[in-house]
């Protein structure tokens, strides 16, 4: 489930391995993560248990979650900022913190997160629930 054996990581990302769009992003990050600064945890893996982290599967499915080595939790756009900083794109990430850009990214991510299952073809029979 975790691809990192070293303890020298900067951020852990909890991603949905059954989400095609999410996997494109994760695969890109895996390629860029030459220094192994990211810990990847697939919440779709059968061995994943959200209760180990004191959360529900709904918490993990509603928006992307991340955890720092200190144990602090982050979510949404901030997870992506930390991931791209970890792979060396700190200067590009700085732009995402500018007021207009930051607000736009937050809004866009919230819309995507709310409709992610439908947008990635994972709804059927009138339901978008994941068990």
Structural description of this entry:
The chain is α+β, with helices and mostly antiparallel strands and 131 residues long. It has one domain (11-119). Helix content is 43%, strand content 12%. The chain contains five helices and four strands; from the N terminus they run E-H-E-H-E-E-H-H-H. The chain has helices at residues 20-32, 57-62, 77-86, 90-95, 99-119, and strands spanning 11-15, 38-42, 65-67, 73-75. The protein has a four-stranded mixed sheet with strand order 2-1-3-4, with helices on one face. The longest helix has 21 residues, at 99-119. The two termini are 18 Å apart. 22% of the residues are buried. Mean pLDDT is 88; it is low at 1-5.
Beta-strand proportion: 5-15%
> Helix and strand string, N-terminal first?
EHEHEEHHH
Shape: globular
The total number of structural domains is 1
């Amino acid at each position: 489930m975790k691809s990192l054996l070293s303890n020298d990581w900067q951020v852990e990302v909890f991603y949905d391995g059954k989400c095609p769009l999410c996997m494109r992003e994760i695969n890109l990050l895996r390629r860029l993560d030459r220094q192994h600064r990211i810990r990847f945890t697939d919440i779709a893996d059968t061995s994943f248990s959200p209760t180990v982290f004191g959360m529900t599967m709904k918490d993990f499915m509603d928006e992307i979650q991340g955890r720092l080595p200190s144990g602090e939790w982050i979510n949404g756009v901030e997870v992506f900022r930390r991931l791209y900083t970890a792979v060396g794109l700190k200067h590009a990430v700085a732009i995402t913190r500018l007021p207009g850009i930051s607000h736009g990214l937050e809004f866009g991510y919230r819309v995507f997160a709310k409709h992610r299952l439908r947008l990635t073809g994972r709804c059927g029979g009138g339901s978008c629930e994941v068990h």
